[in-house]
């Protein structure tokens, strides 16, 4: 039986900020990864197939085969305090609490722990009357932001406002541009800068999901802030799942092509990920770096996510303040 979470007291006023990320397994083991994937892949926002079709495939093929394989990948990036996504999200929430002392800042995950619904109820039971939910997704997608809204809207007795996206927020754009500039000042610039975003099925964009358009707008703003010419960067999409077409161009195909064209050093940044996680540290910085070298490249230089950098925390704190002020 689930034990009710203790109330989270709201220190100053009765408003809380709840930072929400995707979620991650509790341990780098097949059992923990299976629990996480089962929750994730049962979400209709993520996989909308009828359950008659999807559940047998999920329970008898995907979960048993994928969980042990993915657990090994998590084991390769696991940090002392846990999964990178969990560690960095908690640190970012702490950095926000320091900047917003009059609000109770908490963090939660859409899948896994700390669970979004439970955390919202704990805030309510601790005296919070309203909460600003800040999903750590700069670009809106039905597969991510809307799924957070589904859960948040179902909690009764607390007023919930959700930040829909911040893909063109000036502070966030400046923070991403500043981190790229800082990396290149220290390590030198590769021949090309690849902006790699998590993909979604093309079908969803065709049905009106604004995600691709927001990724494009974000990248145009970041490239402009860096003063880059159009031939100095590319936008690609990573982390495909399943067989249908996802947003293109694909990151791995592009890296193969670039290596084939003779490029030796490519810088890769992932501005759609607020904090480092499996998809950046393993897929990009390990797997895709290996792929690039295998096709003749010398080095894929991965530029870390903003994580709990002061510029990131400042930008998000300012977004929270403005949202609460109704601006
Ligand atoms: C099944 C379809 C998936 C969609 C649609 C999807 C969209 C999507 N995901 C993120 C951010 C992250 N995804 C992460 C891991 C991950 N994503 C999927 C599948 C879909 N994502 C899976 C099955 C997994 C788990 C790993 C695996 O089995 O391959 C992560 C990292 C989590 C971690 O623990 O580190 C993030 C972050 C976005 C932003 C997005 C749509 C825009
Ligand atoms: Fe099922
Ligand atoms: Fe994903």
Walk me through what this model shows.
This is Ferrochelatase. Belongs to the ferrochelatase family. One of its GO terms (molecular function) is metal ion binding. The protein has 327 residues and is α/β, with parallel strands linked by helices. The chain folds into two domains: 167 residues, Rossmann fold; 134 residues, 3-Layer(aba) Sandwich (Rossmann fold), CATH 3.40.50.1400. The protein is 47% helix and 14% strand. Strand 3, helix 5 and strand 4 form a beta-alpha-beta unit. The chain starts with 14 loop residues before the first strand and ends with a helix. The structure holds the ligand C=CC1=C(C)c2cc3[nH]c(cc4nc(cc5[nH]c(cc1n2)c(C)c5CCC(=O)O)C(CCC(=O)O)=C4C)c(C)c3C=C and fe (ii) ion (FE2) (2 copies).
- Roughly what is the average pLDDT, rounded to an integer? 96
Biggest β-sheet: strands ordered side by side in the sheet: 2-1-3-4
For the record, the count of structural domains works out to 2
Quote the distance from N terminus to C terminus: 43 Å
CATH class of the largest domain: Alpha Beta
Radius of gyration: 20 Å
User: How many helical elements?
Assistant: 11
The name CATH uses for the topology of the largest domain is Rossmann fold
Sheet/helix structural class:
alpha/beta
List the helices and strands in order.
EHHHEHEHEHEHHEHEHEH
Q: Give the beta-strand count.
A: 8
Quickly list its features.
four-stranded parallel beta sheet; Rossmann fold; alpha/beta; 47% helix; metal ion binding; Ferrochelatase_N; porphyrin biosynthesis; Ferrochelatase; binds the ligand C=CC1=C(C)c2cc3[nH]c(cc4nc(cc5[nH]c(cc1n2)c(C)c5CCC(=O)O)C(CCC(=O)O)=C4C)c(C)c3C=C; globular; binds fe (ii) ion; Ferrochelatase_C; 11 helices
């Amino acid at each position: 039986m689930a034990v009710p979470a203790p109330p989270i007291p709201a220190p100053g006023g009765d408003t809380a900020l709840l930072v929400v990320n995707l979620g991650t397994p509790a341990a780098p083991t097949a059992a923990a990864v299976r629990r996480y994937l089962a929750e994730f892949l049962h979400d209709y926002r993520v996989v909308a197939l009828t359950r008659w079709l999807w559940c047998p495939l999920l329970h008898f093929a995907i979960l048993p085969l994928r969980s042990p394989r993915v657990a090994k990948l998590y084991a390769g990036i696991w940090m002392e305090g846990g999964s990178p996504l969990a560690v960095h999200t908690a640190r970012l929430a702490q950095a926000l609490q320091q900047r917003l002392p009059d609000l109770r800042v908490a963090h939660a995950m859409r899948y896994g722990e700390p669970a979004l619904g439970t955390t919202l109820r704990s805030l309510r039971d601790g005296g919070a009357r309203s909460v600003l939910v800040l999903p750590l997704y700069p670009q809106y997608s039905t597969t991510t932001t809307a799924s957070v809204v589904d859960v948040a809207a179902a909690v009764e007795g607390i007023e919930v406002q959700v930040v829909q996206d911040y893909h063109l927020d000036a502070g966030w754009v400046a923070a991403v541009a500043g981190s790229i500039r800082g990396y290149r000042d220290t390590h030198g610039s590769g021949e090309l800068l690849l902006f790699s975003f998590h993909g979604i099925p093309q079908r969803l964009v065709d049905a009106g999901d604004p995600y691709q358009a927001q990724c494009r707008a974000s990248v145009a703003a970041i490239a402009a802030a860096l003063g880059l010419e159009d031939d100095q960067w590319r936008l690609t999409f990573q982390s495909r799942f399943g067989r249908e077409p996802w947003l293109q161009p694909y990151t791995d195909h592009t890296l193969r092509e670039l290596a084939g064209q003779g490029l030796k050093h490519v810088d890769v940044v992932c501005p759609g990920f607020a904090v480092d996680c499996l998809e950046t540290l393993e897929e990009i910085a390990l797997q895709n770096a290996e792929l690039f070298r295998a096709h003749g490249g010398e080095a894929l230089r991965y530029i870390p996510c903003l994580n709990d950098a002061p510029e990131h925390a400042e930008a998000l704190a300012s977004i929270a303040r403005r949202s609460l002020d109704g601006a």
